[in-house]
Structure formats: C-alpha cells, structure tokens
Write a structure and sequence with these properties.
Shape: globular
CATH topology of the largest domain: Rossmann fold
Distance between the termini: 59 Å
Helix content: 25-40%
Number of domains: 3
CATH superfamily of the largest domain: ANL, N-terminal domain
Length: 525
C-alpha cells in the first residue's frame, strides 16, 4: 500500500510525489499523461513567472478555468510562492465577479480568453474599472488582451532558483492557499479562508480512509474552484500518488468513456452527476469491474440513487461523503464496515481525528439520537471567513464549526443528516425536515429529482411545497404523489403542494438551489 504523504505544505507534498514517483502520471488530459515530475517542474516555472510579474506572498490570484493542466500548474505555483488562489467559476457573471474580486482584493486574474457563451477578453476590458484591485490578467490557452502574458509564456520562464527557494522557505502550514466563496445560495457569498494545513488535513484524512494508492485512477469532473474538485479530488489523489483524469466540464458520456478507457478505480461525484451518468446511454457498454469505490457527496444522496449505484457497480463499495468549504473538504465518509442499510440512512462517521457533536439552540451538546445542529472540530476546519469578522464570529466557536446542518448521531457514532437548519419548517406545529420527504419521493418510480421548501399557510402556519422532476417518459399526478406520501409518512410530513418541473435550479457544483425556488414562489405568491 502507498504511504500517504505527511508533508506540512502543499508544495512539499508535490515535491515528495515528484521525488518518489517521478514518472508516474499525476494527471491525464486529452490523452496526455503528465507525470508528477512534469507537474513539479512546470509549476516551478509558472511560480518563477508569477514572481517576475511582482506577485508576493499573500497576494490573491483568481483562476477562471476548466479542469485543465494550467489550473493545476497555477494552483501549485501559488502554493510555492505563498500566494492565495481565489476559486472562480466559469458560470459566474458580473455580480459574482464584482463582489468576489473586490472583497478578496484579488490582484491577478488568470482566465480563459473565452468559453462558448462568454468572451472574457471583452468582458474584462469593459469591466476593469469595477475591479480596481486587479492589476494583471494572465490568459490560459491563447492570447488575450494586448500586453497580458499567457500561462504558456510563464511555462517558458527561466527559473531563478535562489528567488524561488527563498519563496518556498517562507511558506508555512498556516498560510492561506485558497479562498473559496460559498455558492451564494443565500445572501452574499462568504470566503472560507483555507490554509495549507486545513486543506492537507482534509485531503490526508480522505486519502487514508479511502486507501488511495498509486494504482488508483480517478475521473475528475468536479470543478477545481470548489473543495469537491481541488481537495477531495486533486489533492487527495496527490497524497496517495494516484492519477486524476482531468475532465474539463462535466459530461456524463465523456465521464463513462474516459473511465472505461483508463480503467477508473474511484468514481467521485455529487448526486446530480451520478444520476446523469446512470441515465446515459453509454453506460451499458462500460465494464465497471475496475471500479473499487463510488463516492457520492456534496449534498444528501437519496437512498434510491445509492441503491442504483450499488447495482451498477457490483464490485465497488458505495460511500457517502460530507464536507463543506469551511472544512476545506471532506470530514465525514461512510466506514468500510458500514452495512448498506446504514449507508442508505447515514452520511457516515468523521474521518481522521475530526470530532462531531449535535447541539441545541443554546449550544448545549445533545444526547445520542437527538436532532440538533452539527458542529465539527479538527485541523480541516478553517480559522475564519476572509475579511469578515461578523460571519466568522457567527460560524466558529472555540475551534468548532457550526455547519447550519441538522442531524443526529446514533449509539454507533453514525451521523444522519436531516437537512439545513434554515430549511426546516413547522407544519401544524411539527418540525418537518424536507430531506426526509425528498428521500421518500425519489424512491417513487416516476420521480427523478425532488426538492422541498416550507411556505406560509393561513391554517397550519407553514406547509411543504415540493418540486418534482419526473422520470423521463412518465407523467405522475399530484394525487398519486400525495397518496404515496400518506402511505409512508406521518400525516404532518405529507406535502400539501406538489409542483412538477422539467428541471431544478442547480449551483455550479450540482446542488439544488432551494433559495431560488423560494424566491420564485415568493414572486408568484
């Protein structure tokens, strides 16, 4: 078994992989195998180029890119000079860019020149005055605005070894490596200030728990601007010296084709991704024998989905994963010894030496089996939100992260998630957690996706309004869905309103945006 790296900083973890397994492919991109030695040498040159552009320790660099080698080189280059990567999504538009770049005081933006529905060269030429802290643009994969360097040019930089070594030695485990802004499903985004120590703690705990080795091959379509892609994917694989197949943007057919071509051993994804892979016509032609582990995380995985994954990957263990931007990545995974029934109802147990407790409204720890807000503690938990003392004070307490997620811990230490604290509603005075109803709804043969919110009601105070995306080729009725719920749920949990939709609004990482459903309802009401 590969020994998992214990390196204290991210650049040291890369140097270690390049020293121990220099020719081993760290990444595969469009049929090119890129070794750990290549990644190390290329990120050295990019780091030297960033130093020549005047970047210093602590400076922020925003990256707008797909899952591609340039993102990887920029990330490790930033780690080597003590710069801080600000994760930006290719799905962001003007309001997100304006808030995040100004709030983070980003000085350099590395960006693609264009994607099919967005020309970044033109956009930033016009938008420049609104983001005064940004002094430099670097373009990825082609020329951009006049006078701006490209990553390709940085890759040709002659390394000033003395200057780079000085920068490397100045980086400490508690220095920031990334600021990841929460997806902004409610209010203004908050920037989780992720350090080398916190990101490595999560990645190391996941690598050890999932028993990553040099033989592992991981198709990676989860975006790098989010912990799912960068911590749970790239960094976890690096620590065990596994190989990541870089998939620029999620496409279920491409995921299947590349997984089959390279003999994928671990299949990570959020529930939406797994659902679309399972529906894809190419699935039947894929021999899944090489897959040893399927990981579903990012939001609650309905039992119906986990059962389908279990059937589709008969030689694999199916695990839930739970983590947040504020925990730098994963903090909970299903144990190997978990029987499948337990995996269906529980997200698992804390990994590494992370700790969990469920607390009441006053912050008192609750006894086993009682539902409260989940708090986590450990090296993976970030110290703060970047430049946001009020939100930091609200979310962190004596090293504990208040997640805003409701759940309970059973006598064996398994955690069952009940949904977001803010999602709970009171129907006729009884607490209803939408996730419990959603899990039941997605077991119905005519239901593909479901999401519930509480809405005002003159008699009951609040009632459940559930949005349903039907399975293709089916036409469920409101009556049959409500009757199905009546047969399987306590009467106070039965939805009072059913709305059928062709699709549900999703965040860039595939979570259902219930805040948008609520906004739509309020406008309509």
């Amino acid at each position: 078994m590969t020994s998992i790296s214990q390196a204290p900083t991210i650049w040291e973890a890369l140097k270690e992989a390049a020293r121990i397994s220099p020719e081993k492919a760290g990444c595969i991109f469009q049929s090119e195998a890129i070794s750990f030695k290549d990644i190390d040498e290329r990120s050295d040159r990019v780091a030297a180029g960033l130093l020549q552009l005047g970047m210093q320790k602590g400076d922020r660099i925003g990256i707008i890119g797909l899952n591609q080698p340039e993102w990887v080189y920029l990330y490790f280059a930033a780690a080597k000079i003590g710069a801080v990567v600000v994760g930006l999504s290719v799905r962001y538009r003007s309001s997100e860019f304006e808030y995040i770049l100004n709030h983070s005081q980003t000085s350099v933006v590395a960006t693609l020149p264009a994607i099919p529905d967005m020309n970044y060269v033109e956009f930033f030429q016009e938008f420049g005055p609104k983001i005064p802290s940004v002094k430099q643009f670097i373009f990825i994969g082609g020329a951009g605005s006049e006078g701006s360097p490209t990553v390709e040019a940085l890759l040709d930089t002659k390394v000033d070894r003395e200057a780079l070594d000085k920068a490397l030695q100045a980086v400490t485990p508690d220095d920031l490596i990334m600021i990841i802004y929460t997806s902004g499903t409610t209010g203004r985004p908050k920037g989780a200030a992720i350090s080398h120590r916190s990101q490595l703690a999560s990645a190391r705990a996941q690598a050890e728990h999932t028993r990553i080795t040099e033989n592992d091959v991981i198709p990676l379509a989860l975006p790098f601007n989010h912990v799912g892609g960068i911590t749970c994917g790239l960094l976890t694989a690096l620590l065990g010296r596994g190989t990541c197949i870089l998939i620029p943007a999620f496409d279920p057919g491409q995921v299947i084709q590349l997984a089959a071509q390279y003999g994928a051993t671990i299949m990570p994804g959020v529930p939406t991704m797994h659902t679309l892979v399972l529906m894809n016509e190419n699935l039947s032609s894929w021999n899944t024998d090489s897959v040893r582990l399927v990981i579903s995380g990012g939001s609650n995985s309905e039992p119906e989905l986990l059962e389908k994954l279990n059937q589709t990957f008969p030689d694999a263990t199916v695990m839930n994963l739970y983590g947040l931007s504020e925990s730098s990545g994963a903090v909970v995974l299903s144990p190997w010894e978990s029987d499948f029934e337990t995996t269906l109802r529980s997200i698992g147990k804390p990994i590494g030496d992370f700790r969990v407790k469920a607390v009441d409204e006053e912050g008192n720890e609750l006894p086993t089996g009682e539902t409260g807000e989940l708090y986590f503690k450990g090296d993976a938990v970030v110290a703060s939100y970047f430049r946001d003392a009020d939100e930091t004070a609200d979310a962190f307490q004596d090293g504990w992260l208040k997640t805003g997620d409701m759940g309970y811990i059973d006598a064996q230490g398994y955690i069952t998630l009940m949904g977001r604290k803010k999602e709970m509603y009171l129907q006729g005075g009884f607490n209803v957690y939408p996730v419990e109803v959603e899990n039941l709804l997605t077991r119905h043969p005519k239901v593909m996706m479901a999401a519930g919110i509480g809405v005002p009601d003159a008699v009951l105070g609040e009632v459940g309004r559930f949005y349903i995306v039907p399975q293709p080729g089916t036409e469920p009725t409101e009556e049959e869905i409500i009757e199905y719920c009546r047969e399987n749920l306590a009467d106070y949990k039965v939805p009072r309103q059913i709305v059928f939709k062709a699709e549900l609004p999703l965040t860039p990482v595939g979570k259902i945006m219930k805040s948008q459903l609520k906004e739509e309802y309020e406008k309509g009401a």
